[in-house]
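step 4 of 6: structure.
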Amino acid sequence: MSILVIAEHDNARLNAATLKTIAAATQIGGDITVLVAGHQCQAVVTEAAQVAQVNKVLHADHAAYEHFLAENLSELVVALGAGYQHILAPATTTGKNFMPRVAALLDVAQISDIIAVESADTFKRPIYAGNAIATVQSSDPVKVITVRSTAFDPVVATGGNASVEVISEVKETAQAQFVGEELAQSERPDLTAARVVISGGRGMQNGENFQMLERIADKLGAAVGASRAAVDAGFVPNDMQVGQTGKIVAPELYIAVGISGAIQHLAGMKDSKVIVAINKDEEAPIFQVADYGLVADLFEVLPELEQQL
Amino acid sequence: MKVLVAVKRVIDYNVKVRVKADQSDVDLANVKMALNPFCEIAVEEAVRLKEKGIASEVVVVSIGPKTVQEQLRTALALGADRAIHVETDDMPDSLAVAKLLQAVVANEQPQLVILGKQAIDSDNNQTGQMLGALTGMPQGTFASKVSVEEGVVKVTREVDGGLQTVQLQLPAIVTTDLRLNEPRYASLPNIMKAKKKPLDVTTPADLGVTVARTVKVLKVEAPAERSAGVKVADVAELVEKLKNEAKVL
């Protein structure tokens, strides 16, 4: 069997989610080819070729792929996809954007957000905000799959020496054009990759108060997240949202501050190794999933916590 | 400009589902159902485009058993002009839904199709993108801002690192994210008016689409439960436990 993994990257570095997707591919079993499509992304190709589990790297380098537009990327993947029984990508906003187009162009279903590989055609995936886990079996000739990266441990990024094939095929449509982007600038680690995440909810009362979380985050090398309630209230931008419709995180330590623990928030963080909840409402549902709960006013607790770390 | 909005009937987002004892599915008997929250945002966006004079007509479509007409009436009460119900008791998957919508798009010829980015039941996040591929339309997924200009739509998208803006030639697909707008509540007079708005019923057979599933659900189970841990008395005890017991600091 052969598996095509679409690499996620920023044209400079391979995203860790790719290594986790390769881990899922390894569990399916077969020859693994990684497609690196981007613009001036040679460094990413070199990185991908060093992963021991990878047999071959396809390198498609063109301005049309610089911003990973779904229209161009899906056409490229379909053009290269013949002969593969599985096509995998991380379930990031990039993967979620182009992979369903790949599936539809191939006239097959997509299996979204798998969290376990049972066999080459059977997978587990969360539904209903993670309140149920479905085991699904696909009879499609090609399985188009996105992988929830928090569910797989990354493969080691070294030890390999895969061959590289340059792809000259250019798929470019005039129908969709990149205009610009505003990427959050932060010295802190990525939410989805951080070892520690500290998140604030509606209890934070306003955006300025998130600075209290940021100061603690800086001491712990943590990323700062937020509940949907805090995003909806306009305290912080949506890219900080942890939950069913935001980011899914599973750090070693998750600290929930002023978060009640709505179903859709729990869906985004309940696989964290250790969960701490700080909330003044003793009845808040977040305490039902927390390893350590502190019933107290966060405005008293946070300065004290900062001091003691 | 005609705008088509596709909506789905799902479990109310406040309800916590339970898995059936035989692990065949989740238990939806006597559970409150509602318009999928992202679909509500899609309807709202289309209605706002009409209020701004950009959209001339807002058509809303849903696929499923007769009960989805409740959600179509909700969308009509929120301001859509007419509704199409594609009636089927099968549970079509995203690809089948996209094919049915492709047929509706061919009949209606909308300039803009707005869908929710995902339904909160299956959590697939596929249909809009699949419809884009099948119709050959460009897509702006996970939209937090939509502005229609001459022949194009500019869509600001919520991506992992922040925001990305793309410009799409019309006709185009937009899927909604949470921050796009805050949907209104339907007023009583509008709920009454919605009962009189046109609602056409069609079937997959009428649209020439066969609904076949290639992905079989073998089992649905409850996730591993996390049990509540301990309460600590103060910050000092918390830090001590994180250091010495959990060993994460």
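step 5 of 6: annotate
 - Chain B touches chain A through 80 residues (CB under 8 Å).
 - Residues 2-244 of chain B form a domain with the Rossmann fold fold (CATH 3.40.50.620).
step 6 of 6: archive
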